[in-house]
Write a structure and sequence with these properties.
Blueprint (H helix, E strand, L loop, with lengths): L2 E3 L5 E3 L12 H6 L5 H35 L2 H16 L11 E4 L3 H4 L13 E5 L4 E6 L4 E7 L7
Antiparallel strand pairs: 1-2, 3-4, 4-5, 5-6
């Protein structure tokens, strides 16, 4: 067996493979690192920091949105009116130059006495155009207009 001289002047015997296929020996395993734990720790720390930063950014944006809505609660109502008007306008021409008053049906029993609300369900929206004297009953779940009727507001001359 060939021998090799180390830096500290000790002699180490070196194993040579007997054929082309070499197998790892105990010396080879101890000299080579099979799995580097320092690299795994670094990757894990980087992944945790990225997860923390992403969570913090998401939480901050959500917090800003909630605080903004608390300062201006009318914003939600305006957005909901805009969405409802956009959906209804896909089915019919709506009066121009007027923003409707939008109400949500919550109790059908008291409204069933009125012919306009005969087919109303809880959750339906009523768009009231006071200047155009028009009322529209819209069902968002089906994306359908249920009823359209002229609006009668007292004695208008």
């Amino acid at each position: 067996m060939p021998r090799q001289l180390k830096k500290d002047h000790s002699i180490v015997e070196v194993l040579e493979p007997k054929n082309e296929r070499s197998f790892l020996t105990i010396n080879d395993i101890t000299q080579k690192k099979m799995f580097d734990f320092k690299d795994v720790k670094t990757k894990l720390i980087v992944a945790l920091v990225a997860l923390f930063v992403g969570s913090a950014a998401f939480g901050f944006s959500y917090y800003k949105e909630v605080v903004g809505l608390r300062e201006n609660p009318q914003k939600i109502a305006q957005e909901e009116v805009g969405k409802t008007v956009a959906k209804v306008s896909a089915h019919m021409l709506l009066p121009e130059g007027e923003t409707p008053t939008v109400a949500t049906v919550t109790d059908t029993e008291t409204l069933k006495k009125q012919p306009f609300f005969a087919n109303a369900n809880v959750g339906d929206r009523v768009l009231i155009y006071a200047s155009a004297l028009k009322a529209i009953l819209y069902r968002p779940e089906l994306d359908k207009i249920i009823e359209v009727a002229p609006l009668n507001i007292g004695n208008r001359q």
